[in-house]
Structure formats: structure tokens, C-alpha cells
């Protein structure tokens, strides 16, 4: 036998009675394909019948091919699922390559399809096929030959996947005879099998099963049940592998019963990858979450016409208005359809491709196309109704205006549609007062004319309209007056009559948002986009809520991406600018500044001064924020100047507030805190007048933080507690946590440890804590624990903070955590650990802001002091001069100067002393203790003793007591040291003992 190849195997049948591997006796041929034959065989060792698959080739098998097949079979052998045939053994003899499987008794699906299937069987078997494919694909196994003949329905009415393909392991081209209709396009072209090609075949099987539904059990054509299964079939057969539905998406479409309906996730061609300044935005469609569905799905109808023909537009609008009152129909807004049609410059009346594109973008089941036709002397309104997907023509008729009034055409259209929908609707005629009112109300609301809409709504209530329109009018009237709770109550009545209507759900979500009930708003928007995934603005509103609540990364990965894709598909420039700006804001909140700047810059290409001046102001201000943080102060100032000019022309007070807020940040980043406070207060005053709670809370937070940096702790606390009250009522989770962390930091600095600990514990206990908030909480916990001598726990806390900062790729967070970790190490005289942290900080130094740069230099000076470096004194004096002559926060200035004053011998007339006396107060207990200890005057010793008694748990008490005279101080020093040792880990204790031995009295 040749060790490298196997002899050629022809397609002739193996004779009954042939013994393979001296164990398996051939009984009969069960089936065959291009690469293999499957036999029933008797296993003489186990005494059972098995299925035996013999490989057929047109060439001599190389040993590498055999080994590849063996590995795949042995891997498949590990699969344990009732819907996958059990694989036994792989064999290689001199003449044959084969493997054995369990023998499944029953009928093949191909045989059953000829008899017809029932809906319950279709769902059961397809769900089991999905289970089988998921198990295979999770194990990185591709079946390669999914077709009805390879799906057995056993005696227990369970589907079993029985025959694994082997074509991908053969060096010769894949043979496709007999199964080509189930092969994906890329397989036919290149022979490359994949999980996506398996899913393509599954889509073909779904289509076959739908076609095989028995007439008595066939659901109505436009029922939710059939609609979703058609979408599974079409979505799985997308020509582009990466755009096919995922198994999870199929399962949601097939099984879920919790929301309205679901649309196929396949996107329009050409939207596979979205790039913004070279940053990859796009993820495969099948990775996006699929909204849930219910059996009571409405038929989605989009009506389109020539937007230049006002009479046709009136007919389209009145038809859509009448359809709105049907519970089982969801008629899309004609204006929205027209806008997308205009953006794309498409002509659905004359182009099948344009109709398919529009139906896919609008996610509609039916597309109603109205157009004018002139046949000789006849003036006709042509009605074309097609079913999606596939553009199958359902209605193709015309109405002669010589025999029909134009006002009667909507009624004729509805009558014709009712035959297809199995529905009835009360037609609206063009000259009816109710119809005219409804159209006028829609136009007034769309144009933002609230006053005119209010007048018309009152007239509508006086008219003899149906329940739907009276309730709709009540809701709109209440909302226009600001009575959002009343409007919500009315809409709830409508939703009881029209459950899961996407447009009503979106209106209900907007009302919940207006009353600051973000959780309820999110829930309603989720239901709305489940019912109509084509609505980009609903996706955006949902993303906005999630970002506000701190769910930033999920919003980036799903809702914002959904919105951007849909706006790009419809070539909506304003929408793209809106979402790109939101992407920038989200990345800004994640501290991914370069990425945020890229998005803001891209958004500006859509938000021009001519087309969207107000929006441009917003994005310019946002971009200036990023540039200020990154130290590009000149660019930030230039962008704010441009924004200022636009705002002046617009007379936009909120725009002024936005710019003032960003001016404040620009000043803050440069260390000009007094100037920053002035800008922040101006922004706050404007926002208080405007009544925007969310923006107010942000401005309050900014003002409080500057007061904190300036050492005005009482004012900072007042502002932060005011912000907390507003944020708790608003469910603003992200900003709420940020404010709580800031307040906790203030409390730690003031020595109010118990209150700080309670705040931080509340954040960690919150179920919706973001990674950013979790990082900041552990950072403050570390400071809190260290201050109270729990130094081992503090080290654990900061390690957690560093880990989180690195995981979320936030360089600022990494810098802050490493600076504090290095301060812990230098304070405990852990020299090697200090060197490690300083080495990790060095590459980040170019991105330091003013405060971080000073803290870094302070740590370097302390490192030099501990190493007895000859130039430590010079470095220390230079740093003192730098702090005294730079604009620095009061907290940083006090901490650094008080510490250095105690480490160097400075003359009494040095500028540091009057400055410390000016800026330090007992409220900064840590800096105050260092300041007292640094003074050699005996007059302050009693004050130092009193302060140490107030903070008996402070980690540095041992050092300070050794500075005081008397035996009592010696006893207290020894007690403080022993307590500190008891709260250290071994490494900390060993390092500090060497220092303490030199320090002890």
C-alpha cells in the first residue's frame, strides 16, 4: 500500500455482503452524491446496523486529504445533539476511505415535502435545523451539504442532520451535481464552503417548506407568521455571505412572541463597510441584535408617487390616512417615503430595481405605486401594488378620471387593496372635511406650526370623526399644550385598540422622554424599532437614551450603527450628520478622544454653515472640546470662534450656552480655573432659563467641579447635591454616577470618609454601572482606603482600576490610575514598584494635562529623594517654583507645595510659606497636616497634635508623631505604626519596615 495516496475509487456500487475493515458488511445503498455513497451496513462487532459513508474521488487521495477528513470526522464525533447524527469511527483501508454513523430510521425531508407540511411542523423542524447548525458552527464544523435529502425526520418526528459533506477536503474541484440548487453562489464560483454557505442552504430549505405548506393549513399571505418566515428564507439567501441572517436572528424571527414584528437584517448592496476617517465602523449585519416579534404583525404598506404631482400626493396621503385606522395595517408616512425617494433619485413607477430598493429600505410588505398615464384621450391614475421581497406584482390596474372623480380615487384604491388584505376600511374622499383636517394637521405638525395644529385639532374634535382619529386628536392636543401625562393616557387607549403599532409606540416613547421617564421611553422605542426597523430616527432616539443612561458601548455597537446605516442607505445628509455627531459624543464620553475627533470632523462635512448652521455650532463646539482635552488649544479656539459667529447670526441662546460651556472646558484644560468658572456659570444661567434639565445638570456639575478645584468645598457640595437631586429624578445614570464620584472625592479630601464610602458603595451596587464609572469608583475607593491606613485594600482597588482603564482603552484613566498607584508606592517606600509605575507613565507623558504633568514631576522628585540623588534638592526647588508660577488647581497646589515644604529645608522668607498660608485650610486635612508638620515653629505643634487626634486612622500618623517631642508622641507613633503594619500586605510591610526603622524615635 502506498502511504501517501489511496487508489482511485469509482462510482460503482459496493456489492451486498462486501466486508470492509473486517467488520462492516454492506447491506444496501441508501443514497449517493458527487463525493460519496452511503450504505446500510452491519457492524459485526457491536451487532447493529449503521450508516457507512464511502468517499468517492476522481483522483488518488493524498494522505493530507485523508488526514484532513479524519480530523473533521473525529471533531464531528464530539458533537452531542439529538438533531445531529451520531458519528462513530473513521477508517482508512488499502482500498477505501469511509466513516460510520448512527442509522436514522424515518423519512427524508425531501420525501415529506412532496406530501406537504403543516405550519407547526415547519417551525419545529426548522428550529431543530437551526439548533444543529449552531452546534456545528460553534465547533467550527461546516456541514457542506445541507439539503432536504440529508435531513431525516425520525420516528419521533424529530429532524436529524445525517450526512456531513467532505468536498472541502478534496484537492480536486468540488462536484456539485445533484445539489447545486442548495449551494451558495460563492460555493459554485470557488468551491469555498463556510458556515455562511450552510446558512444559505438552510434558507433554500425554508423556501421549500413554505412552498410545501398544505392548502388547508397555509396562513394568509400577509399574516405575520408567513411574513417572518419569508424574511428568514430571503435573508439567509443573500448573495453576500457576510450579509446573511445569523442563526440567532432566524431563531428570534421564528420563535419570539414579545413584540410587534421583525424585518430582515440584510442591507442594501454597497453598505457592507462604513469608514469614517479610516476608522472601521461596520460590523456584519448578522451580529446586530434582532428585535423580537409577535404573531399579530401588521402588514406594512409604503405608498409612493411622483412628488411633483400635488394631486397624486393628496391621493396618496388620504389613502395612507384611511389605512392608519386599520389595526392590522401599518401605513408609512407618505412624506417620509417621498423624502427617501427624492434623496435617492429613484423612480419606483418605472424601475423594478428601484421598487425593490425602496421596499427594502422602508421594510414594507406592500409597495403601492401611484402614477399618471395618458392613453390616447384617456387620463388615468395607475395603481401598481407589489409584494416584497421579490417585487411580485399583486395589483396592476388603472382608474379612468373620465368616469371617476379624483376625490373618489382613494376609496377605489382602498377597495382594491381590501381584496388583497382581506380587510375593510372606510374610504376618505378628497373633499371630505375630516380628510382635509387630517391632512392639514399632519402638515402643520411636520412644519413645526404648533399654533395652527392646535386650531385644527380643536376643529377635528368638533367633526364627526371615528374613534381612532378622535383619540389621536386628543393625544396631539394634550401634547401640544405640554400635558404629556394626559397625552400618554390617551395614547395608551389607542395602543389597547392598535397593539404594537410602531408609529404609536414611538409617539408614546417621545412622551415618556418628555416626562424624564427614560426607562419607559427606552422600552417603547425598543418596541417601535422592533415593529419598524427602517426608522433611523427611532434608532437614534433609542441610542440617545442608552448613552444618557451610561450604556454607551451597547448603543455604539447596535442602535447608533443601525441609525447610521439607515440614514446612509437613504442618503439623508442631515441624518448622517446627526448620528456621526452622536458617535463622537459617545466616544468622547468613553475618553476615546482621537476617535471622537474623527467623527466630529466627518459630521461637519454634512453639517455645513449653509444647510445646518445650528447643528454645525453643536459639532464645532464638540470638536473644540476634544481638541482642548488633547491640548490643541489654538484649533479649539478657532472652532469656537466660528461657532460664535454662527450663533450670533442665528440669535440662538442655547447655542451660546453650548459655546460658553466649551469655552469653560478650554480654560479648564489650560488651568485657567477662574476664567473657566465664569464661562460655566454663563452657560448654567442660560440653561436654567431654557428649562432643559439634562443640560442644566451638566452645567451644575461643571460649576461644582471648578469650585472644588479652587478649594471652595462648601459651594461645590451645594452644587453637586443640587445636581444629584435633579439627576435622580431624571434617571440620568451616567451623569448621576459621575456626580456621585465627584462628591465622594470631595468628601474624602475633607475627611468625611463614611459619607464617601456610602456614595461609592451605592454606585458599585447599581446594576447599570458603566465601565467608566466602575473605574472612577475603584480609584476613589483606593484613595479612601489609603487615607484610613487600609493600604493593602487600597492597592487592590487601584489594581482593579488600572485593569478596567486598560480594558476600556482609556489613556486618561490609565494615567490617573498609574499616578495614584505610583503615589501609593512612593509613600510606602516600595522602590521597585514605584520604578515600574513611572516607567509605564513615561510613554503617556506627551498626553499629560497641566495637573498630570505636575503630579508626575512631583513623583520623580520624591523618587530622587528616596534614592538620595545628588540633584534631588535642585529638582525639588525647580518644581516648587513651577507650581508657584503656574495656573494650577488649589487642591493640587496645596498638596504638592505642602508636601515639598516638609521634605526640603526652605528659608523662612521663601515664597512658598505665604502662599501655603493663603490657600490651605483645615478642610484640606491631608495638605493641612503636611503644612503643619513642615513648620518648625513650636507654636503649631499643639495644632498638629489636635489635627492628628481628629484623624486617628490617617496612614501618615506614624511619621507625624515622630516629628513631635515627648514620650506620649512616641507611644502614639508606635501604636500608629503597628496599626499600619496590620493593614499592609507582605510586600508593603517589608518595604515600609526599612523606612520605619530609620524613622522611629
From TrEMBL:
Keywords: ATP-binding, Coiled coil, Kinase, Nucleotide-binding, Serine/threonine-protein kinase, TPR repeat, Transferase. SUPFAM superfamilies: HCP-like (SSF81901), Protein kinase-like (PK-like) (SSF56112), TPR-like (SSF48452). TPR repeats lie at residues 502-535. Residues 626-653 form a coiled coil. One of its GO terms (molecular function) is protein serine/threonine kinase activity. Its EC number is 2.7.11.1. The keyword Nucleotide-binding applies. Residues 24-385 form the Protein kinase domain. It catalyses: L-threonyl-[protein] + ATP = O-phospho-L-threonyl-[protein] + ADP + H(+); L-seryl-[protein] + ATP = O-phospho-L-seryl-[protein] + ADP + H(+). PROSITE patterns: PROTEIN_KINASE_DOM, PROTEIN_KINASE_ST, TPR. GO terms for biological process: signal transduction. This is non-specific serine/threonine protein kinase.
Amino acid at each position: 500500500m502506498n502511504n501517501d495516496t489511496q487508489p482511485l475509487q469509482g462510482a460503482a456500487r459496493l456489492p451486498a455482503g462486501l466486508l470492509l475493515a473486517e467488520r462492516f458488511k454492506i447491506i444496501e445503498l441508501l443514497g449517493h452524491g458527487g463525493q460519496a455513497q452511503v450504505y446500510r451496513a452491519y457492524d459485526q462487532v457491536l451487532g447493529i446496523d449503521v450508516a457507512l459513508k464511502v468517499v468517492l474521488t476522481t483522483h488518488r487521495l493524498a494522505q493530507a486529504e485523508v488526514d484532513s477528513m479524519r480530523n473533521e470526522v473525529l471533531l464531528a464525533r464530539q458533537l452531542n445533539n439529538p438533531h445531529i447524527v451520531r458519528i462513530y469511527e473513521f477508517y482508512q483501508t488499502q482500498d477505501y476511505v469511509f466513516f460510520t454513523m448512527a442509522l436514522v430510521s424515518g423519512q427524508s425531508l425531501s420525501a415529506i415535502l412532496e406530501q406537504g407540511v403543516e405550519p407547526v411542523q415547519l417551525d419545529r423542524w426548522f428550529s431543530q435545523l437551526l439548533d444543529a447548525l449552531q452546534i456545528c458552527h460553534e465547533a467550527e464544523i461546516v456541514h457542506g451539504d445541507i439539503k432536504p435529502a440529508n435531513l431525516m425526520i425520525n420516528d419521533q418526528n424529530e429532524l436529524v442532520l445525517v450526512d456531513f459533506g467532505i468536498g472541502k477536503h478534496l484537492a480536486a474541484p468540488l462536484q456539485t451535481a445533484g445539489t447545486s440548487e442548495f449551494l451558495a453562489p460563492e460555493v459554485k464560483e470557488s468551491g469555498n464552503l463556510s458556515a455562511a454557505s450552510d446558512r444559505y442552504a438552510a434558507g433554500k430549505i425554508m423556501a421549500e417548506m413554505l412552498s410545501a405548506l398544505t392548502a388547508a393549513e397555509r396562513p394568509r399571505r400577509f399574516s405575520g407568521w408567513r411574513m417572518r418566515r419569508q424574511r428568514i428564507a430571503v435573508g439567509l439567501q443573500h448573495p453576500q455571505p457576510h450579509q446573511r441572517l445569523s442563526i440567532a436572528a432566524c431563531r428570534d424571527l421564528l420563535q419570539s412572541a414579545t413584540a410587534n414584528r421583525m424585518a430582515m437584517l440584510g442591507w442594501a448592496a454597497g453598505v457592507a463597510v462604513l469608514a469614517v476617517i479610516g476608522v472601521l465602523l461596520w460590523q456584519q449585519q448578522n451580529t446586530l441584535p434582532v428585535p423580537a416579534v409577535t404573531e399579530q404583525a401588521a402588514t406594512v404598506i409604503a405608498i409612493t408617487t411622483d412628488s411633483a404631482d400635488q394631486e397624486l400626493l393628496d391621493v396618496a396621503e388620504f389613502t395612507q390616512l384611511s389605512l392608519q385606522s386599520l389595526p392590522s395595517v401599518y401605513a408609512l408616512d407618505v412624506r417620509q417615503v417621498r423624502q427617501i425617494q427624492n434623496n435617492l433619485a429613484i423612480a419606483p413607477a418605472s424601475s423594478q430595481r428601484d421598487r425593490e430598493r425602496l421596499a427594502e429600505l422602508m421594510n414594507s410588505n406592500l409597495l403601492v405605486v401611484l402614477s399618471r398615464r395618458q392613453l390616447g384621450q384617456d387620463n388615468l391614475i395607475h395603481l401598481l401594488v407589489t409584494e416584497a421581497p421579490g417585487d411580485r406584482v399583486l395589483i396592476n390596474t388603472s382608474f379612468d378620471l373620465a368616469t371617476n372623480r379624483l376625490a373618489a380615487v382613494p376609496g377605489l384604491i382602498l377597495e382594491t387593496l381590501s381584496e388583497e388584505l382581506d380587510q375593510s376600511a372606510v374610504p376618505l374622499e378628497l373633499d371630505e372635511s375630516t380628510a382635509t383636517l387630517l391632512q392639514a394637521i399632519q402638515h402643520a405638525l411636520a412644519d413645526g406650526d404648533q399654533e395652527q395644529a392646535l386650531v385644527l385639532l380643536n376643529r377635528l374634535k368638533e367633526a364627526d370623526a371615528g374613534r381612532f382619529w378622535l383619540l389621536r386628536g386628543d393625544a396631539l392636543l394634550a401634547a401640544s399644550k405640554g400635558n404629556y401625562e394626559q397625552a400618554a393616557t390617551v395614547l395608551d387607549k389607542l395602543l389597547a385598540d392598535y397593539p404594537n403599532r410602531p408609529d404609536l409606540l414611538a409617539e408614546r416613547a417621545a412622551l415618556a422622554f418628555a416626562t424624564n421617564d427614560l426607562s419607559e421611553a427606552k422600552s417603547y422605542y425598543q418596541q417601535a424599532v422592533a415593529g419598524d426597523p427602517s426608522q433611523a430616527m427611532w434608532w437614534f432616539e433609542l441610542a440617545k437614551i442608552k448613552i444618557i443612561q451610561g450604556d454607551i458601548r451597547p448603543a455604539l455597537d447596535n442602535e447608533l450603527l443601525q441609525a447610521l446605516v439607515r440614514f446612509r442607505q437613504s442618503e439623508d445628509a442631515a441624518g448622517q450628520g446627526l448620528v456621526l455627531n452622536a458617535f463622537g459624543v459617545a466616544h468622547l464620553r468613553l475618553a476615546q478622544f482621537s476617535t471622537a475627533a474623527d467623527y466630529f470632523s466627518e459630521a461637519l462635512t454634512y453639517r455645513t454653515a449653509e444647510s445646518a448652521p445650528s447643528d454645525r455650532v453643536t459639532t464645532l463646539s464638540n470638536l473644540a472640546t476634544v481638541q482642548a482635552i488633547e491640548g490643541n488649544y489654538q484649533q479649539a479656539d478657532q472652532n469656537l470662534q466660528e461657532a460664535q459667529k454662527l450663533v450670533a447670526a442665528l440669535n440662538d441662546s442655547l447655542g451660546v450656552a453650548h459655546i460658553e460651556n466649551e469655552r469653560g472646558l478650554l480654560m479648564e484644560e489650560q488651568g485657567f480655573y477662574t476664567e473657566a468658572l465664569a464661562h460655566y456659570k454663563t452657560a448654567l444661567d442660560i440653561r436654567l432659563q431654557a428649562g432643559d434639565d439634562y443640560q442644566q445638570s451638566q452645567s451644575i456639575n461643571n460649576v461644582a467641579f471648578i469650585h472644588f478645584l479652587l478649594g471652595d468645598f462648601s459651594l461645590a457640595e451645594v452644587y453637586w447635591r443640587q445636581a444629584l437631586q435633579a439627576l435622580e429624578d431624571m434617571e440620568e445614570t451616567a451623569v448621576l454616577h459621575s456626580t456621585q464620584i465627584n462628591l465622594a472625592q470631595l468628601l474624602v479630601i475633607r475627611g468625611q470618609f463614611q459619607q464617601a464610602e456610602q456614595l461609592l458603595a451605592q454606585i458599585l451596587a447599581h446594576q447599570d454601572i458603566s465601565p467608566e464609572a466602575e473605574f472612577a469608583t475603584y480609584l476613589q475607593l483606593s484613595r479612601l482606603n489609603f487615607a484610613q491606613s487600609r493600604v493593602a485594600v487600597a492597592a487592590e482597588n487601584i489594581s482593579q482600576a488600572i485593569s478596567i482603564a486598560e480594558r476600556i482603552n482609556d489613556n486618561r484613566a490609565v494615567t490617573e490610575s498609574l499616578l495614584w498607584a505610583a503615589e501609593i508606592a512612593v509613600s510606602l517606600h516600595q522602590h521597585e514598584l514605584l520604578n515600574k509605575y513611572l516607567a509605564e507613565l513615561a510613554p503617556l507623558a506627551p498626553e499629560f494635562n497641566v495637573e498630570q504633568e505636575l503630579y508626575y514631576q512631583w513623583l520623580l522628585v520624591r523618587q530622587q529623594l528616596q534614592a538620595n540623588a545628588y540633584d534631588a534638592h535642585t529638582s525639588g526647588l525647580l518644581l516648587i517654583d513651577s507650581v508657584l508660577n503656574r495656573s494650577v488647581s488649589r487642591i493640587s497646589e496645596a498638596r504638592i507645595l505642602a508636601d515639598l515644604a516638609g521634605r526640603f529645608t526652605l528659608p523662612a522668607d521663601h515664597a512658598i510659606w505665604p502662599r501655603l498660608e493663603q490657600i490651605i485650610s483645615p478642610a484640606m486635612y491631608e495638605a493641612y497636616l503636611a503644612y503643619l508638620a513642615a513648620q518648625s515653629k513650636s507654636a503649631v505643634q499643639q495644632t498638629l497634635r489636635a489635627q492628628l487626634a481628629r484623624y486617628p486612622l490617617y496612614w501618615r500618623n506614624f511619621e507625624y508623631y515622630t516629628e513631635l517631642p515627648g514620650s506620649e508622641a512616641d507611644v502614639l507613633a508606635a501604636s500608629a505604626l503597628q496599626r499600619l503594619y496590620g493593614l499592609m500586605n507582605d510586600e508593603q510591610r517589608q518595604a515600609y519596615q526599612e523606612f520605619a526603622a530609620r524613622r522611629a524615635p
